[in-house]
Amino acid sequence: MAMASSSNRKKPKKNQTPESQFNYNLNFYSKSKDLHSAISLYDTAISQDTRLNQHSFNTLLYLCSVSLNDPSTKELALRCGFRIFDHMVSNGIKPNEASITAVARLAAAKGDGDYAFDLVKNVGAYNELPRLRTYDPALFCFCEKLEADKAYEVEEHMGSMGVGFEEGEIAALLKVSVESRNEKRVYGYLQKLRKMVRCVRGQTAKVIEHWFAVFEGSGVELDVDLVREAVSRNGGGWHGLGWIGKGKWVLKRGSVDVGGKCCCCGEQLVSVDIDDDETEIFAESVAGLAMEREVKANFSEFQNWLEEHANYEAIVDGANIGLYQQNFAEGGFSISQLDAVVKDLYNQSGKKWPLIIMHNKRIRALLQNPSTRELIQEWIEKDVLYTTPQGSNDDWYWLYAAVKLRCLLVTNDEMRDHIFELLGSDFFIKWKERHQVRYTFVKGKLELQMPPLFSVVIQESENGSWHVPVAGNGNDSPQSWLCVSRPRACDALEEDSCMEGSKDSNDICCNSKLLSFGRPESLTSCKNKLQSQASFQGSDNKITALTCKRKERSPSPSYLHVPRDQRHQ
Fold this sequence. Notes:
- This protein is an alpha/beta fold.
- About 45% of the residues lie in helices and about 10% in strands.
- The protein contains 21 helices and ten strands.
- A six-stranded mixed β-sheet has the order 4-3-2-5-6-7, with helices on both faces.
- The longest helix is centred in the first third of the chain and has 20 residues, at about 70-90.
- The protein is globular and about 90 Å long.
- The N and C termini lie far apart (about 95 Å).
- One of its GO terms (biological process) is tRNA 5'-leader removal.
- Keywords: Hydrolase, Magnesium, Manganese, Metal-binding, Repeat, tRNA processing, Zinc.
């Protein structure tokens, strides 16, 4: 059998079997990407009837697939790769997902997307599940050959198998849809990008630019209230109703200022929340997990109480704030820090009290302290405080309240504990960005760090304009923004102003001033669900001015968590 030689290689063990010697040499050739030597080794093994296992075949197939990028080895890889796979199957060696992926890459490199797709569709015959990488060869092959219908078939099959997309796959589908002038598909893939990608890559941005440069179709004319309701229901930043407006598109590359205003068209970008359905799913998930880990009756009582006290615009993680920077000898629970946060929120929100959530054990201790008793009793009387019962984890309570009421959550907790990992949802990160208020005390002075004034994601405005953040060096920080609008949106601005201030586009965090305090735009509890878009009855106000009237609050059961003899001095 052929042996690899290298001064840097370790000497093989003595008395190796032919199979062990083959695998030893093959692994070396694989690491060095030496396809010619690996094929020579394989041919020698076959002539000597050396038994090869699945790992050996997969190593050879992998080496063939990675050799496709080298013009000097591509022909050899294609010629030998299929022969090796046929030998593998004829010998009764079951291919796995890695085997199928490697051969699918070979087929795509030969331009045979149909064979690559057939391999994926038949992977179940080997009791294997396809992955994204398994579909990529067929999908990209069809897209490159502009075989749109076949590409859409791959997409549909991926969905049926629960395989998700990444930017590269969506961009490929977007491009083939642009080339085939499929307006509906292009719109759908733009929405997929909006949902899955924060900043698009430069190549993706070029595809988007090309579409709007050639797309001359007029959008539908929709009732303004219908569009606003859709934006509200979706959490802001998109309506999903299709192309809106008439006239050619105006494309510009520019920046967005720190307040979220596009310097090209003057459009105000928004802070995007999760939509109504995601909010309900999120709240139900938190409640379900809490019920499994808490005393069910206790958490149910909290849920019922919250239904009767649903007017809060901010939830406060009392323990997190009271124990902030208290890890020193004289440190303890700082009621003054908590009071500062509560008063700041009260003053900035138009005299609306936040809800503090803390464990009853800590509240009992504070009530027993004469210096803190009066403040705690004041909070109890004003329904500012809810105490969680003995043995409970207050994390479940403040998280559920913030999600259910769609309001702000004041905490420095990064929510990385196992209880939050159980949620396992992509929209958890999106929700945190929109709702979490962090804080700091600099020399005793409170600074609230509010959520960003606007979200760095693709945004579709009420008037049909689009704003697409294009990635710079970092994936989440835009180097520029692609502004796509109708002519009337750009008339008021000077051409040169579009390119000014790009250095400010990355600074998206608002200062400690609460410029837009309160409940996010998605207000399911304030309105009736639409039976359908056609039967929609619109709001009378702009989306940013929507408010809801709440019923009068009943006495707080948090009072009941405090011992009777400690309620008053």
